[in-house]
Specification:
disordered C terminus, four-stranded antiparallel sheet, alpha+beta, globular
Length: 442
Protein backbone atom coordinates (compact mmCIF):
# COMPACT_ATOMS: atom_id res chain seq x y z
CA UNK A 1 0.00 0.00 0.00
CA UNK A 2 1.39 3.35 -0.99
CA UNK A 3 1.89 6.18 1.46
CA UNK A 4 -0.39 9.20 1.31
CA UNK A 5 2.30 11.62 0.15
CA UNK A 6 0.76 12.94 -3.05
CA UNK A 7 1.97 14.20 -6.39
CA UNK A 8 1.61 17.96 -6.63
CA UNK A 9 1.26 20.33 -9.56
CA UNK A 10 4.43 22.16 -8.48
CA UNK A 11 6.67 19.16 -7.75
CA UNK A 12 9.85 19.44 -9.82
CA UNK A 13 12.32 16.95 -11.20
CA UNK A 14 15.53 18.73 -10.29
CA UNK A 15 18.08 15.99 -10.93
CA UNK A 16 21.26 17.92 -11.77
CA UNK A 17 19.33 21.06 -11.00
CA UNK A 18 16.91 21.05 -13.90
CA UNK A 19 13.75 19.56 -15.30
CA UNK A 20 14.06 18.09 -18.76
CA UNK A 21 11.34 19.89 -20.64
CA UNK A 22 9.89 19.36 -24.08
CA UNK A 23 12.56 16.96 -25.28
CA UNK A 24 10.35 14.66 -27.32
CA UNK A 25 9.19 11.20 -26.26
CA UNK A 26 10.15 10.14 -22.77
CA UNK A 27 11.12 6.78 -21.32
CA UNK A 28 11.90 6.22 -17.68
CA UNK A 29 14.97 4.59 -16.31
CA UNK A 30 14.55 2.48 -13.22
CA UNK A 31 14.10 4.31 -9.95
CA UNK A 32 16.37 4.04 -6.96
CA UNK A 33 15.91 0.90 -4.90
CA UNK A 34 12.99 1.10 -2.49
CA UNK A 35 11.32 4.03 -4.25
CA UNK A 36 8.45 4.22 -6.70
CA UNK A 37 8.16 6.38 -9.77
CA UNK A 38 4.70 7.76 -10.55
CA UNK A 39 3.98 8.98 -14.07
CA UNK A 40 0.84 11.06 -14.47
CA UNK A 41 -0.23 11.61 -18.05
CA UNK A 42 -2.49 14.65 -18.41
CA UNK A 43 -4.33 15.50 -21.60
CA UNK A 44 -6.91 18.03 -22.68
CA UNK A 45 -6.99 21.74 -21.82
CA UNK A 46 -5.33 22.24 -18.44
CA UNK A 47 -5.52 25.42 -16.38
CA UNK A 48 -2.34 27.10 -15.25
CA UNK A 49 -2.43 29.49 -12.32
CA UNK A 50 -2.20 33.10 -13.41
CA UNK A 51 -2.09 32.36 -17.14
CA UNK A 52 -4.28 34.05 -19.74
CA UNK A 53 -4.25 30.87 -21.79
CA UNK A 54 -6.88 28.19 -21.48
CA UNK A 55 -4.30 25.44 -21.05
CA UNK A 56 -3.91 22.27 -23.04
CA UNK A 57 -1.51 21.42 -25.82
CA UNK A 58 0.34 24.64 -26.35
CA UNK A 59 -2.31 26.40 -24.27
CA UNK A 60 -5.52 27.65 -25.87
CA UNK A 61 -6.11 31.37 -26.27
CA UNK A 62 -8.35 32.17 -23.30
CA UNK A 63 -11.14 34.72 -22.99
CA UNK A 64 -9.05 36.86 -20.63
CA UNK A 65 -6.29 37.03 -23.24
CA UNK A 66 -8.79 38.13 -25.88
CA UNK A 67 -9.83 41.03 -23.65
CA UNK A 68 -6.17 41.93 -23.20
CA UNK A 69 -5.70 41.93 -26.97
CA UNK A 70 -8.55 44.40 -27.32
CA UNK A 71 -6.79 46.79 -24.95
CA UNK A 72 -3.35 46.33 -26.49
CA UNK A 73 -4.67 47.00 -29.99
CA UNK A 74 -7.05 49.83 -29.04
CA UNK A 75 -9.95 48.00 -30.68
CA UNK A 76 -13.28 49.73 -31.24
CA UNK A 77 -16.46 48.20 -29.81
CA UNK A 78 -17.35 46.80 -33.23
CA UNK A 79 -13.90 45.25 -33.59
CA UNK A 80 -14.18 43.71 -30.13
CA UNK A 81 -17.48 42.07 -31.08
CA UNK A 82 -15.93 40.62 -34.25
CA UNK A 83 -12.91 39.41 -32.25
CA UNK A 84 -15.21 37.67 -29.77
CA UNK A 85 -16.98 35.95 -32.66
CA UNK A 86 -13.65 34.81 -34.08
CA UNK A 87 -12.65 33.50 -30.68
CA UNK A 88 -15.86 31.50 -30.29
CA UNK A 89 -15.15 29.71 -33.57
CA UNK A 90 -11.52 29.15 -32.60
CA UNK A 91 -12.52 27.87 -29.17
CA UNK A 92 -15.07 25.41 -30.58
CA UNK A 93 -12.46 23.91 -32.91
CA UNK A 94 -9.88 23.79 -30.13
CA UNK A 95 -12.19 21.93 -27.76
CA UNK A 96 -13.28 19.48 -30.44
CA UNK A 97 -9.66 18.67 -31.27
CA UNK A 98 -8.60 18.44 -27.63
CA UNK A 99 -11.46 16.12 -26.73
CA UNK A 100 -10.66 13.87 -29.68
CA UNK A 101 -7.03 13.76 -28.54
CA UNK A 102 -7.98 12.96 -24.95
CA UNK A 103 -10.32 10.21 -26.07
CA UNK A 104 -7.66 8.60 -28.25
CA UNK A 105 -5.00 8.80 -25.52
CA UNK A 106 -7.43 7.42 -22.96
CA UNK A 107 -8.02 4.43 -25.20
CA UNK A 108 -4.29 3.88 -25.73
CA UNK A 109 -3.59 4.12 -21.99
CA UNK A 110 -6.19 1.45 -21.30
CA UNK A 111 -4.06 -0.84 -23.42
CA UNK A 112 -0.95 0.12 -21.46
CA UNK A 113 -2.74 -0.78 -18.24
CA UNK A 114 -3.13 -4.32 -19.52
CA UNK A 115 0.17 -4.84 -21.37
CA UNK A 116 2.63 -2.47 -19.60
CA UNK A 117 4.18 -2.06 -23.04
CA UNK A 118 6.47 0.98 -22.67
CA UNK A 119 6.36 1.61 -26.44
CA UNK A 120 2.86 2.98 -25.84
CA UNK A 121 4.33 5.70 -23.62
CA UNK A 122 7.47 6.16 -25.70
CA UNK A 123 6.01 6.10 -29.22
CA UNK A 124 2.21 5.94 -29.47
CA UNK A 125 1.21 8.77 -27.15
CA UNK A 126 3.82 11.26 -28.44
CA UNK A 127 2.71 10.48 -32.01
CA UNK A 128 -0.92 11.15 -31.10
CA UNK A 129 0.00 14.40 -29.38
CA UNK A 130 2.10 15.50 -32.33
CA UNK A 131 -0.74 14.88 -34.77
CA UNK A 132 -3.36 16.71 -32.74
CA UNK A 133 -0.84 19.37 -31.74
CA UNK A 134 -0.34 20.24 -35.40
CA UNK A 135 -4.10 20.70 -35.79
CA UNK A 136 -4.27 22.91 -32.70
CA UNK A 137 -1.35 25.02 -33.93
CA UNK A 138 -2.96 25.50 -37.33
CA UNK A 139 -6.21 26.57 -35.68
CA UNK A 140 -4.38 29.14 -33.55
CA UNK A 141 -2.43 30.53 -36.50
CA UNK A 142 -5.68 30.96 -38.45
CA UNK A 143 -7.25 32.79 -35.49
CA UNK A 144 -4.44 35.34 -35.32
CA UNK A 145 -4.39 35.84 -39.08
CA UNK A 146 -8.14 36.51 -39.00
CA UNK A 147 -7.57 38.97 -36.15
CA UNK A 148 -5.06 40.89 -38.25
CA UNK A 149 -7.69 41.30 -40.99
CA UNK A 150 -9.79 43.33 -38.54
CA UNK A 151 -7.04 45.87 -37.86
CA UNK A 152 -6.16 49.23 -39.29
CA UNK A 153 -2.59 50.02 -40.30
CA UNK A 154 -2.04 51.83 -37.00
CA UNK A 155 -3.35 48.87 -35.05
CA UNK A 156 -1.19 46.43 -37.01
CA UNK A 157 1.86 48.31 -35.78
CA UNK A 158 0.80 47.34 -32.24
CA UNK A 159 0.44 43.65 -33.07
CA UNK A 160 3.95 42.68 -31.82
CA UNK A 161 2.64 43.36 -28.30
CA UNK A 162 -0.03 40.72 -28.87
CA UNK A 163 2.68 38.31 -30.03
CA UNK A 164 4.75 38.98 -26.91
CA UNK A 165 1.63 38.52 -24.78
CA UNK A 166 1.01 35.15 -26.40
CA UNK A 167 4.60 34.06 -25.88
CA UNK A 168 4.36 34.88 -22.19
CA UNK A 169 1.17 32.82 -21.99
CA UNK A 170 2.63 29.78 -23.69
CA UNK A 171 6.32 29.89 -22.72
CA UNK A 172 6.23 31.14 -19.14
CA UNK A 173 3.95 28.24 -18.23
CA UNK A 174 6.76 25.83 -19.12
CA UNK A 175 8.86 27.11 -16.24
CA UNK A 176 9.91 24.74 -13.47
CA UNK A 177 11.79 27.05 -11.10
CA UNK A 178 9.77 28.89 -8.47
CA UNK A 179 9.19 32.40 -9.79
CA UNK A 180 10.00 31.49 -13.39
CA UNK A 181 6.37 31.23 -14.52
CA UNK A 182 5.30 34.58 -13.07
CA UNK A 183 3.96 37.23 -15.46
CA UNK A 184 4.40 40.61 -13.77
CA UNK A 185 2.18 42.33 -16.33
CA UNK A 186 -0.69 39.98 -15.47
CA UNK A 187 -0.20 40.69 -11.77
CA UNK A 188 -0.27 44.46 -12.25
CA UNK A 189 -3.26 44.31 -14.60
CA UNK A 190 -5.22 42.27 -12.06
CA UNK A 191 -4.53 44.87 -9.35
CA UNK A 192 -6.52 47.53 -11.25
CA UNK A 193 -4.27 50.37 -10.13
CA UNK A 194 -5.13 54.02 -10.67
CA UNK A 195 -4.11 55.69 -13.94
CA UNK A 196 -1.53 57.72 -12.03
CA UNK A 197 0.18 54.66 -10.57
CA UNK A 198 0.13 52.91 -13.94
CA UNK A 199 1.87 55.86 -15.53
CA UNK A 200 4.54 55.60 -12.84
CA UNK A 201 5.27 51.90 -13.29
CA UNK A 202 4.53 51.44 -17.00
CA UNK A 203 8.10 52.34 -18.09
CA UNK A 204 9.45 49.50 -15.93
CA UNK A 205 6.78 47.13 -17.25
CA UNK A 206 7.65 48.08 -20.83
CA UNK A 207 11.30 47.21 -20.18
CA UNK A 208 10.22 43.99 -18.49
CA UNK A 209 8.05 43.06 -21.47
CA UNK A 210 10.99 43.32 -23.87
CA UNK A 211 13.60 41.70 -21.59
CA UNK A 212 11.44 38.73 -20.62
CA UNK A 213 10.46 38.18 -24.25
CA UNK A 214 14.12 37.90 -25.30
CA UNK A 215 14.80 35.46 -22.46
CA UNK A 216 11.77 33.34 -23.39
CA UNK A 217 12.83 33.17 -27.03
CA UNK A 218 16.32 32.05 -25.97
CA UNK A 219 14.87 29.23 -23.90
CA UNK A 220 12.41 28.30 -26.65
CA UNK A 221 15.31 27.86 -29.06
CA UNK A 222 16.80 25.30 -26.68
CA UNK A 223 13.59 23.35 -26.15
CA UNK A 224 12.70 23.45 -29.84
CA UNK A 225 16.09 21.92 -30.57
CA UNK A 226 15.30 19.17 -28.07
CA UNK A 227 11.90 18.53 -29.63
CA UNK A 228 13.53 18.11 -33.04
CA UNK A 229 15.64 15.20 -31.81
CA UNK A 230 14.29 11.88 -33.03
CA UNK A 231 13.92 8.74 -30.98
CA UNK A 232 13.38 8.31 -27.27
CA UNK A 233 15.11 10.31 -24.56
CA UNK A 234 16.12 8.11 -21.67
CA UNK A 235 16.68 9.57 -18.23
CA UNK A 236 20.37 8.79 -18.39
CA UNK A 237 21.88 11.81 -16.74
CA UNK A 238 25.37 10.36 -17.18
CA UNK A 239 25.08 11.06 -20.92
CA UNK A 240 27.14 14.14 -21.77
CA UNK A 241 24.69 15.37 -24.41
CA UNK A 242 21.80 15.17 -21.94
CA UNK A 243 23.83 16.90 -19.24
CA UNK A 244 24.77 19.73 -21.62
CA UNK A 245 21.17 20.25 -22.71
CA UNK A 246 20.00 20.10 -19.12
CA UNK A 247 22.59 22.68 -18.05
CA UNK A 248 21.70 25.10 -20.85
CA UNK A 249 17.99 24.77 -20.16
CA UNK A 250 18.54 25.41 -16.48
CA UNK A 251 20.64 28.50 -17.23
CA UNK A 252 17.84 29.87 -19.43
CA UNK A 253 15.30 29.18 -16.69
CA UNK A 254 17.43 30.92 -14.07
CA UNK A 255 17.67 34.00 -16.29
CA UNK A 256 13.89 34.16 -16.61
CA UNK A 257 13.38 33.69 -12.87
CA UNK A 258 15.97 36.34 -12.05
CA UNK A 259 14.37 38.81 -14.45
CA UNK A 260 11.01 38.28 -12.78
CA UNK A 261 12.47 38.83 -9.33
CA UNK A 262 14.54 41.84 -10.37
CA UNK A 263 11.67 43.67 -12.04
CA UNK A 264 9.32 42.71 -9.20
CA UNK A 265 11.61 44.54 -6.77
CA UNK A 266 11.68 47.59 -9.06
CA UNK A 267 7.89 47.69 -9.41
CA UNK A 268 7.38 47.25 -5.67
CA UNK A 269 9.56 50.28 -4.92
CA UNK A 270 7.32 52.43 -7.13
CA UNK A 271 4.11 51.48 -5.32
CA UNK A 272 2.58 52.92 -2.11
CA UNK A 273 2.81 50.68 0.95
CA UNK A 274 -0.67 49.13 0.68
CA UNK A 275 -0.38 48.40 -3.04
CA UNK A 276 3.19 47.15 -2.58
CA UNK A 277 1.96 44.60 -0.02
CA UNK A 278 -0.77 43.39 -2.40
CA UNK A 279 1.75 43.15 -5.23
CA UNK A 280 4.18 41.16 -3.08
CA UNK A 281 1.45 38.74 -2.02
CA UNK A 282 0.31 38.25 -5.62
CA UNK A 283 3.90 37.62 -6.69
CA UNK A 284 4.40 35.06 -3.90
CA UNK A 285 1.21 33.21 -4.87
CA UNK A 286 2.30 33.14 -8.52
CA UNK A 287 5.87 32.12 -7.70
CA UNK A 288 4.97 29.50 -5.07
CA UNK A 289 1.34 28.56 -5.79
CA UNK A 290 1.45 25.33 -3.78
CA UNK A 291 2.76 27.30 -0.79
CA UNK A 292 0.73 30.50 -0.78
CA UNK A 293 -2.52 29.70 -2.61
CA UNK A 294 -5.71 29.58 -0.50
CA UNK A 295 -6.46 26.20 1.03
CA UNK A 296 -9.72 24.60 2.05
CA UNK A 297 -9.19 25.77 5.63
CA UNK A 298 -8.65 29.41 4.66
CA UNK A 299 -11.69 29.32 2.38
CA UNK A 300 -13.81 27.89 5.19
CA UNK A 301 -12.66 30.67 7.51
CA UNK A 302 -13.56 33.28 4.90
CA UNK A 303 -16.99 31.76 4.42
CA UNK A 304 -17.70 31.36 8.13
CA UNK A 305 -16.80 34.97 8.92
CA UNK A 306 -19.35 36.04 6.33
CA UNK A 307 -22.27 34.17 7.92
CA UNK A 308 -25.04 36.60 8.85
CA UNK A 309 -26.35 34.38 11.67
CA UNK A 310 -23.16 34.26 13.77
CA UNK A 311 -23.55 35.04 17.44
CA UNK A 312 -21.15 37.50 19.05
CA UNK A 313 -19.40 34.62 20.80
CA UNK A 314 -19.04 32.67 17.54
CA UNK A 315 -17.62 35.68 15.71
CA UNK A 316 -15.05 36.25 18.46
CA UNK A 317 -13.99 32.59 18.51
CA UNK A 318 -13.64 32.47 14.73
CA UNK A 319 -11.51 35.63 14.80
CA UNK A 320 -9.19 33.97 17.32
CA UNK A 321 -8.99 30.81 15.18
CA UNK A 322 -8.15 32.89 12.11
CA UNK A 323 -5.46 34.90 13.91
CA UNK A 324 -3.81 31.70 15.14
CA UNK A 325 -4.11 30.04 11.72
CA UNK A 326 -2.59 32.96 9.83
CA UNK A 327 0.28 33.29 12.30
CA UNK A 328 1.20 29.59 12.07
CA UNK A 329 0.61 29.47 8.31
CA UNK A 330 2.87 32.47 7.73
CA UNK A 331 5.78 30.75 9.48
CA UNK A 332 5.19 27.53 7.55
CA UNK A 333 4.99 29.41 4.25
CA UNK A 334 8.31 31.13 4.83
CA UNK A 335 10.08 27.86 5.70
CA UNK A 336 8.37 26.02 2.84
CA UNK A 337 9.25 28.60 0.18
CA UNK A 338 12.80 28.83 1.50
CA UNK A 339 13.15 25.02 1.36
CA UNK A 340 11.83 24.89 -2.21
CA UNK A 341 14.21 27.58 -3.35
CA UNK A 342 17.12 25.87 -1.60
CA UNK A 343 16.36 22.54 -3.24
CA UNK A 344 16.05 24.18 -6.64
CA UNK A 345 19.49 25.70 -6.16
CA UNK A 346 20.95 22.38 -4.95
CA UNK A 347 19.25 20.40 -7.72
CA UNK A 348 17.87 17.59 -5.55
CA UNK A 349 14.14 17.90 -6.02
CA UNK A 350 11.92 15.56 -8.03
CA UNK A 351 9.97 16.93 -10.96
CA UNK A 352 7.91 18.15 -13.84
CA UNK A 353 8.39 17.22 -17.46
CA UNK A 354 6.55 18.01 -20.67
CA UNK A 355 6.59 15.50 -23.47
CA UNK A 356 5.14 15.69 -26.93
CA UNK A 357 3.04 18.72 -26.08
CA UNK A 358 1.49 17.20 -22.98
CA UNK A 359 2.43 17.06 -19.34
CA UNK A 360 4.13 14.30 -17.38
CA UNK A 361 4.73 14.64 -13.69
CA UNK A 362 7.37 12.50 -12.02
CA UNK A 363 7.85 12.16 -8.28
CA UNK A 364 10.28 10.02 -6.32
CA UNK A 365 9.00 9.30 -2.82
CA UNK A 366 9.10 6.87 0.04
CA UNK A 367 6.10 4.62 0.65
CA UNK A 368 6.00 5.55 4.34
CA UNK A 369 4.91 9.11 5.12
CA UNK A 370 6.19 8.72 8.68
CA UNK A 371 9.71 8.57 7.22
CA UNK A 372 9.40 11.94 5.47
CA UNK A 373 12.52 14.03 6.10
CA UNK A 374 12.58 16.10 2.91
CA UNK A 375 12.32 19.77 4.07
CA UNK A 376 9.67 20.64 1.47
CA UNK A 377 7.55 17.62 2.36
CA UNK A 378 7.98 18.33 6.07
CA UNK A 379 6.47 21.80 5.62
CA UNK A 380 3.78 20.54 3.27
CA UNK A 381 2.80 18.00 5.92
CA UNK A 382 2.86 20.70 8.61
CA UNK A 383 0.50 22.88 6.54
CA UNK A 384 -1.82 19.95 5.89
CA UNK A 385 -1.96 19.18 9.62
CA UNK A 386 -2.56 22.87 10.45
CA UNK A 387 -5.46 22.93 7.99
CA UNK A 388 -6.95 19.80 9.57
CA UNK A 389 -6.71 21.25 13.08
CA UNK A 390 -8.17 24.55 11.94
CA UNK A 391 -11.14 22.92 10.25
CA UNK A 392 -11.80 20.89 13.40
CA UNK A 393 -11.69 24.02 15.58
CA UNK A 394 -14.00 25.85 13.21
CA UNK A 395 -16.48 22.97 13.14
CA UNK A 396 -16.62 22.97 16.94
CA UNK A 397 -17.75 26.61 16.90
CA UNK A 398 -20.38 26.35 14.18
CA UNK A 399 -23.82 24.78 14.25
CA UNK A 400 -24.62 21.78 12.06
CA UNK A 401 -26.55 24.00 9.64
CA UNK A 402 -23.65 26.45 9.42
CA UNK A 403 -21.15 23.66 8.80
CA UNK A 404 -23.26 22.48 5.88
CA UNK A 405 -22.77 25.88 4.21
CA UNK A 406 -18.97 25.67 4.24
CA UNK A 407 -17.07 24.92 1.01
CA UNK A 408 -16.76 21.25 0.16
CA UNK A 409 -13.42 19.58 0.76
CA UNK A 410 -11.29 18.98 -2.38
CA UNK A 411 -12.29 15.84 -4.21
CA UNK A 412 -9.88 12.94 -4.14
CA UNK A 413 -9.09 10.50 -6.94
CA UNK A 414 -7.29 7.18 -6.79
CA UNK A 415 -3.61 7.80 -6.23
CA UNK A 416 -3.86 11.20 -4.53
CA UNK A 417 -5.33 14.67 -4.84
CA UNK A 418 -6.64 16.10 -8.06
CA UNK A 419 -3.83 18.56 -8.61
CA UNK A 420 -4.75 19.91 -12.05
CA UNK A 421 -8.14 21.51 -12.59
CA UNK A 422 -10.20 22.81 -15.48
CA UNK A 423 -10.58 26.55 -15.97
CA UNK A 424 -13.93 26.36 -17.75
CA UNK A 425 -12.41 26.42 -21.23
CA UNK A 426 -11.97 22.69 -21.44
CA UNK A 427 -11.23 19.77 -19.18
CA UNK A 428 -8.40 17.64 -17.90
CA UNK A 429 -7.84 13.90 -18.00
CA UNK A 430 -5.52 12.30 -15.51
CA UNK A 431 -4.04 8.87 -15.15
CA UNK A 432 -1.33 7.71 -12.77
CA UNK A 433 0.89 4.72 -13.51
CA UNK A 434 3.33 3.35 -10.96
CA UNK A 435 6.66 1.99 -12.19
CA UNK A 436 8.65 0.36 -9.44
CA UNK A 437 12.40 -0.16 -9.30
CA UNK A 438 12.08 -3.61 -10.87
CA UNK A 439 10.71 -1.92 -14.00
CA UNK A 440 7.19 -3.34 -13.65
CA UNK A 441 4.31 -0.94 -14.20
CA UNK A 442 0.97 -1.45 -12.53
Amino acid sequence: MLGTSNLRSQSKLMQYGVAVSLLGSIALSQSATGQAVFVTETTGPVAVSGARSGGGVGGSVGAAAVKDYGKLLNLTDDQKEMLEALHEGYRATYLETSRAQASEIREVLSGFNESHDMSIIQDDIPAIRQRYGNEITANEEAFFEDLKLLLSDEQLELFPRVERHRRRDTLLRRGFLSGESVDLIDIVNDMELSDGLRETINPELDRYEMDIDRALLEKKALTDDGESQSGVLMFNFEDEEVQERVAKTREASVRIRNLNESFARKVKLLLPEAEAAKFTHAFDVAAFPDVYSPTHASKCLDTAQGFADLTTDQAEQIAVIRESYEREASAIHERWARAKRSQEEDGNRGGFLAAGGGQVIIAMRTDNEEEVTDPVEVERKAKRELDTRTNQKLASVLTTDQQAKLPEAPKQHEGGETFISSDGVGFSFERTVEIRSDGDGR
